[in-house]
Amino acid sequence: MTPITSLHCRRFSTCLLLVAGLLGSLTQSAHAASLPAKRLPYIDDNQQCRGQPLPATIEHLSGEAWKLDHKGQQVPLEEGMSVDEQEGVKTSPSAFVSLSLGDGSRIVLPSSSQVRLTLNEELKVAQVILEQGQVESYVIKRASDYDRFQIVTPVGVLGVRGTHFRVRNDDKGQSLVEVLNGQVAVDRTEDTDQPAKKPGDKSPRQVGAGDDEVVQVMARQGLRIQKEGKLTPTDLLPAPQLLGQAGQTGRQPVWQLIIRPMDGATRYRAQVATDTGFLNILQEQFSSTPEINFSGLKAFNYHVRLSAFDDQGLEGETGVYDIFYYPRTLRVQ
Fold first, then answer.
1. For the chain, what is the mean pLDDT?
2. What percentage of the chain carries pLDDT values higher than 70?
3. Between 321 and 6, whose confidence is greater?
4. Which residue, 108, 39, 58, is CA-closest to 67?
5. With contact defined as beta carbons under 8 Å apart, do 163 and 182 qualify?
6. How many CB atoms lie within 10 A of CB 171?
7. Which band of pLDDT confidence, cut at 50, 70 and 90, is reported for residue 214?
8. Is domain 49-235 classified as CATH 2.60.120.1440?
């Protein structure tokens, strides 16, 4: 037996052990018949044992959100709930939801957003259909082109191997993507419901070569995806700088963050989370001035993320600050 064959066998054996363990856990569960069927791990084209990306699991929930079944009927969302193929998630105007996929990738939905999950069975690719709002993705790296995470928008498909990026739909029928780490391949297509193409079916060409080219958006770049015309990535604005804070006293304290004004910024965004990865976001606020106000927060050591938008509507790089917020209410005599 050659060393390569031996290595493949060990990987295959490992995958079989994972499969056996999963089957055992399913048979030991008394209510397993009422749960969604678990997809078994598989061996990819590079002889790697991979976990199935779906179903996804609700990891964090702040505010009110709903799970949508394949018919669009909704039930209140809860942490720990699973979201499988052809199911979706919808957030209220003040909610934030983070989902973890079976392959280790994570997506975060801010307020007023809606997605539907699908799976390309041939490529084992998880697809997130962005129907409303925004999604922020943290995609694990893959050595193989055959393991990609995709986000489908009304005007294109975004495919990645491993990166951190944001994508959202605006009210003009366009989509905007901002890449913070890694790179994203944007494939503008007229029919985004068609199955994903295999890597290599269409090689990336020079930006602006035509209306149907695949465009690579690199780290610290953004792109407004239009239905026609050239697709030209632009550099993102740098992260804003925090100058200080105010407004922590009073009967109803308002926490004000003061940002250094930036050239080219049309508005600012600040998010407050309890974790460094910003998977558990509590609040976010937008402002056309470099002062952003929060209210209703308790004393805590928060992680604050700042960003700015340019005149194209692209959100720039983020700056993260650790701030201990301590509201001091006035005592009534």
1. 81
2. 72
3. 321
4. 58
5. yes
6. 5
7. confident
8. yes
| Three-state DSSP string of 307-325 | EEECCCCCECCCEEEEEEE
Q: Does 211 have pLDDT greater than 60?
A: no
| Fold classification of 242-325 (topology level) | Immunoglobulin-like (2.60.40)
pLDDT in tens, 106-158: 999 999 999 999 987 776 678 999 999 999 999 877 666 554 678 999 998 89
Per residue in 68-106, is it b (16+ CB within 10 Å) or e — as a string? Answer: beeeeeeeebeeebbbbbebbbbbeeebbbbbbbbbebb
Highest mean pLDDT among 49-63, 100-114, 115-129, 237-251: 100-114
What is the C-alpha to C-alpha distance for residues 109 and 64, in angstroms, rounded to an integer? 12
Span(s) in the chain for CATH 2.60.40.10: 242-325
155/133 Cα distance (integer angstroms) = 14
Residues of the chain with CATH 2.60.120.1440: 49-235
| Best CA proximity match to 262, nearest among 315, 212, 224 | 315
3-class DSSP string for 22-68: HHHHHHHCCCHHHCCCCCCCEECCCCCEECCCCCEEEEEEECCEEEE
Q: pTM of the predicted model, to two decimals?
A: 0.78
d(CA 15, CA 12): 5
